[in-house]
Design goal:
The complex is a heterodimer of chains A (332) and B (485). Chain A is α/β, with parallel strands linked by helices. Helices cover 28% and strands 13% of the residues of chain A. Chain A is globular. Among the domains of chain B are: 5-37 and 431-484, no CATH class; 84-224 and 337-372, Orthogonal Bundle (Cytochrome-c3 Hydrogenase, chain B). In chain B, a hairpin with a 2-residue loop joins strand 4 (169-170) and strand 5. The chains are: A alpha/beta (332), B alpha+beta (485).
Chain lengths: 332, 485
């Protein structure tokens, strides 16, 4: 029998949903344990950072890394794993494009720290004590704390990434298909998005047959304001569903759950900026000829363009957020 | 002076953490710090988002307990819009919530915390995990656990859209009704859930309670702290995961406070330390006295053991029986032994399974009347649930269009963070002596936090902003002298 494939799983600024997505492989995970050897996986297995440091470079076959990069420690860990691994896979939307925590790029680091540790209503902090990179806890002992970076980065903004697995979180099917590709030996071109489709979500949506040839909306409704007819295309009912611009492959879970797609699987191949693509699509379905009126409608109804269109991808967008283009920020 | 020992990362928990053990010249631990190097800032970037998106955005705080955040946010939206969900919707929410509590607790027992007992605290580190459990209790047991947990999670997917980051919660109801076919499946599955819950209770007794070494470990002073306990209770003071009042008991088991979540700012405060990103909750009216336990220290605990300590009983028959057995066996209440948390969690697995069955038997859950459409927001909305890891509070303030202007999220592991620090410090001081350090001993230090099933993703992704509903005046020693509302 050939040697088992050595696999590491690691999380950065993540929620743990991507770990659950792996646990959700269920019995397949047990079967996989005959084919793979997990050499690092903090959520479930007791190997430590020093165990990884002791491994020869390139000795891990595949590292799956989820979460965005938010702390100096994340940078260190992903660089370490890059060095030790033949392949690095960005797992889930945070690693791929920054994810929901990437919305923090709308704010400065100092605003974040000040609110949390000083201004919060529940905090009692007369001395204005803040987390510090180095703290003397006794006269003889110091403790170090990793620094919060100025902004959130996607994985490939820090290290070289071989493949991407989309979704927040990737569904078990997407994970299973990705593993089949990676363990199957016939690797696709570097940079490929694995396990999903390269057609839009509408293509696999049961409601697609009810979607009119051309959608024209006079107004846009927010989800809590309307009782949707769950048997008809939500977009045609005036609720923003990002299915038309989102990569398929998830099985339209949110839509089946009675809610519109929010775009967690990200854009199709060759689309650089998900939000820009979504804006362009929205522009094509708003039924206004005159710009003044259209602008009014957008202001009235598109109440949160960043949160709706860049919910998972702000750090990888052209907009970038608060730190766009500042030279001094490029080092952090 | 010896170089500190650093356990990095601590493992089998949700999120990041390190334990730093400080040593004296003889190599004995003088103190230990559980540091949480994690921070994301949800409350701050929630500002500007429409309130109805909060249940889906905040679920991203934690992918292990997304349903807890989703539900706390959804309940806060009910409050924000002053809209009650129709009874069938409320029942379906509670059903989903108990399914979630069931599968989440199972994860901890078999994958995260359980391996320390099932495989052994000092077993080789390559064995102390689910794969080791598999070899120890046999593939059929693990396979049953995995299958049943998958069924529970598939049921959540069927009702809530996704299991990792549900989508179904809306102010005044849920997004889609469930049909009779699904109810039948749920009913069938609920028998399987109860069976596994009872089986897990038996395993706990067989593997852990019948082993004197483990019982001694659970009851030993190394893992014991006398603190306050907080949990949600129903009108009869029984444990309730979805709704109720917050009840606090003191270290002697007397009711110290019982309050509606709208009053939480009067009861809970937080302390900041420079060596970690987590904040430490304490009882505001008792005060912060440093990392110390006892009746004069405001440190309190949440999560399974705290819930059982803070309540007078369980809401379902099997769970009640197990509850009585636990307190009778240990012989006192409240139970201050941290490792008894594992026991309490199994008692709760029973209640969750029984609740699922009870709700699945109720034909009303298929009633299509699941939405009340809200009108204008009233400005403030606060919601509370018991996350598997303890009391979880979401608080939003919005403008008149329902756009979030302020958000405050108080998360279970924050409430436990001070007691966890006590536990880790005490374990290290008792276990690491005279330069004798083994991997097994270090794992026993880790067991002191692992019992809490902490979620450091939750605990550090918070970012409260400045509400000004109440002014607290303190003297220079931190004693509360006046509250101005």
């Amino acid at each position: 029998m050939s040697e088992k494939v050595k696999v590491a799983l690691y999380w950065c600024a993540s929620c743990g949903g991507c770990e659950e997505a792996v646990v959700d492989l269920g019995e397949d995970l047990i079967r996989l344990s005959n084919m793979i050897d997990i050499v690092f996986w903090p959520v479930a297995v007791d190997f430590k950072r020093s165990d990884v440091e002791e491994m020869p470079d390139g000795s891990i076959d595949i590292s799956f890394i989820n979460g965005g990069i938010r702390l100096t420690e994340h940078e260190e860990m992903v660089k370490l794993l890059r060095r030790k691994s033949k392949l690095v896979v960005a797992f889930g939307s945070c690693a791929q494009t920054g994810g929901v925590p990437g919305l923090a790029n709308l704010l400065s680091r100092d605003e974040i720290l000040r609110y949390i540790y000083v201004e919060a209503p529940t905090v009692v902090n007369f001395e204005g004590s803040m987390p510090k990179e180095e703290v003397a806890v006794t006269s003889r002992h110091k403790i170090e704390l990793p620094r919060l970076l100025k902004y959130v980065k996607a994985l490939d903004q820090v290290i070289d990434v071989d493949y991407y697995i989309p979704g927040c979180a990737p569904t078990p099917e997407v994970v299973r298909r990705s593993l089949e590709i990676l363990l199957g030996g016939k690797l696709p071109p570097k940079g490929s998005v694995l396990g999903a489709s390269n057609k839009s979500l509408c293509d696999e949506c049961d409601l697609n047959k009810t979607k009119p040839e051309k959608i024209l909306l006079k107004d846009v409704k927010r989800v809590h304001e309307v009782k949707l007819d769950l048997s008809k295309c939500y977009l045609a009912q005036g609720v923003i569903c990002l299915g038309p611009v989102t990569r398929g492959g998830c099985g339209t879970l949110c839509i089946k759950g009675g809610m519109p797609c929010t775009g967690c699987s990200g854009p199709l191949d060759n689309v650089k900026d998900f939000g820009a693509r979504a804006i362009s699509y929205l522009a094509s379905i708003l039924d206004y000829e005159d710009e003044v009126q259209a602008r009014k409608v957008i202001e009235e109804y598109i109440v949160d363009p960043v949160g709706w269109l860049y919910r998972y991808s702000l750090p990888k967008s052209l907009v970038r957020g608060k730190y766009q283009g500042l030279e001094s920020d490029k080092h952090e | 002076m010896s170089k500190p020992i650093v356990i990095d990362p601590i493992t089998r928990l949700e999120g990041h953490g390190k334990i730093i053990i400080l040593l004296d010249d003889n190599g004995s631990a003088v103190d230990a710090y559980l540091q949480i190097p994690e921070l994301r800032g949800f409350e701050k970037f929630l500002v500007g988002r429409p309130a109805e998106d909060a249940p889906q955005i905040t679920s991203r705080i934690c992918g292990v307990c997304p349903t807890a955040h989703h539900m706390a946010a959804t309940k806060a939206l009910d409050d924000l819009y002053a809209v009650e969900p129709p009874l069938p919707a409320k029942k379906v929410r509670e059903l989903v919530y108990n399914l979630f509590m069931f599968e989440d607790h199972l994860l901890h027992f078999y994958v995260l915390g359980g391996p320390d007992f099932i495989v052994g605290p000092k077993a080789p580190k390559s064995e102390r995990n689910i794969f080791g459990v598999l070899r120890k209790v046999g593939p059929e047991v693990v396979s049953k656990v995995i299958k049943t947990r998958k069924t529970a999670r598939d049921m959540i997917t069927a009702i809530a859209g996704k299991v990792i980051h549900p989508v179904f919660g809306l102010p005044g109801g849920i997004a889609r009704p469930i049909d009779e076919g699904l109810r039948k499946k749920l009913l069938e599955a609920s028998n399987e859930f109860l069976e596994l819950a009872l089986f897990t209770h038996e395993i706990f007794k067989k593997v852990i309670l019948s082993n004197k070494e483990y019982v001694d470990l659970i009851l030993s002073d190394v893992y014991t702290h006398k603190t306050y306990y907080m949990g949600l209770v129903d009108e009869a003071n029984r444990v309730n995961f979805y709704d109720g009042k917050l009840r606090v008991v003191d270290p002697d088991g007397r009711e110290y406070a019982k309050f509606d979540v709208h009053e939480y700012l009067n009861h809970i405060a937080e302390h900041v330390e420079p060596w970690t990103y987590v904040r430490f909750s304490y009882l505001r009216n008792i005060g912060w006295r440093g990392f110390t336990d006892g009746i004069s220290s405001g440190i309190f605990s949440v999560a399974p053991l705290a819930r059982l300590n803070a309540a007078d009983g369980m809401a379902t028959p099997h769970a009640q029986e197990a509850y009585e057995e636990m307190f009778n066996t240990i012989g006192h209440k409240p139970v201050h032994h941290t490792l008894a948390m594992h026991w309490a969690r199994v008692v709760e697995i029973l209640q969750a399974a029984e609740k699922v069955k009870e709700l699945a038997e109720d034909p009303e859950i298929t009633d299509p009347n699941i939405r009340n459409i809200p009108e204008a927001p009233k400005g403030i909305g606060i919601g509370v649930v018991e996350a598997p890891r303890g009391v979880l509070i979401h608080h939003y303030e919005t403008d008149d269009k329902g756009i979030i202007r302020k958000a405050n999220l108080l998360v279970a592991t924050q409430h436990n963070s001070a007691r966890i620090s006590l536990s880790v410090g005490k374990a290290a001081k008792n276990l690491i002596k005279n330069g004798e350090v083994s991997e097994g001993l270090l794992n026993m230090v880790e067991m002191a936090f692992r019992a809490y099933d902490p979620c450091h993703a939750c605990a550090t992704h918070n970012l409260p902003v400045d509400f000004k509903p109440v002014i607290y005046l303190y003297d220079l020693r931190g004693n509360l002298i006046k509250i101005i509302k």
